[in-house]
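Here comes an entry:

___
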Amino acid sequence: MKILGIETSCDETSAAVVSNGATLSNVISSQTVHNYFGGVVPEIASRIHIQIISKVVKDALNKANTTIEGIDGISVTFQPGLIGSLVVGTNFAKALSLRYNKPIIPIDHIEGHIYSGFLEGLDIEFPFITLVVSGGHTAIFVVKSFNDFEMIGATRDDAAGEAFDKIGKLLGLGYPAGPLIDKLAKNGNPHKYHFPRGLISSDDYDFSFSGLKTAVRYFIQKTFNGSVPENELADLCASVQEAIVEVLIVKSQKAIEKLGINTLVIAGGVSANSRLRELAADTFSKKGIKLIIPKIQYCMDNAAMIAILGEFKLIEKNESFNFFDYSFKANPTPKRSKNR
């Protein structure tokens, strides 16, 4: 079985081919033009998707040494994300499905991240915990099967990646700030400054990072009169990063211990952070917890995670699901609750 995946939820145009759990290709075209504006401009993002999606899909098929005729199904991200970007991807996938009579599987972008650990191999046993941490989402899920998961914790305000970007702007860094903070922090002292760890001691699995952002802003104004000296930047980045990462690890550990589950998947763009990977490996290896963090190319928005989840769903062939139903629509803001 070969599945073509298409992902256009934000500013990456991606297509991939997955076969029997193995990634045959994973093409990602990133829109660097948004760096100039300090954030993603939705209209520009959708226009670029229109211009490049056909070539990205062709490249993915060529790299997988196959054709659209050789594909058994098409999975596509339909929520959440930027409405214009989602419309481009879903309409392109529907057109391919209609033209070549291929089953189509609409995939939730967050579900793609939840199951992205399977891109590292199929030996993950249910149930497991997934921490999805990115620019727009920070949440913890209990995953019981390919069609059954529950969100048990979420951010009450800013997501972790959003906090990195907003604090990076306060520090005078470019966009996206997460990788820049990670790089600068390598030469800094993470204990030089202490910033608040929102909800770290609460009994739930929720997150809050807006207080950290506010604390950093007031600290910069009071200590440096609003302008951070260059020789303090590395220490500030390391201290901010430590505050974010520590909360992510503590909350994940709390979920594992309380629920008695011994497998943790960390996914999403922020899972590429080197300190998060380091602290997670150190913390959970000591406790005998199986830790899975996908390769960097699978942490960012990518079509491989959309394709592999589509493959799982097509294999299961839920009789209640119509794989030729084109009535689904791009949905930028699906309703979610901690009791899914």
The domain at 2-114+299-316 is CATH 3.30.420.40 (Nucleotidyltransferase; domain 5). The radius of gyration is 20 Å.
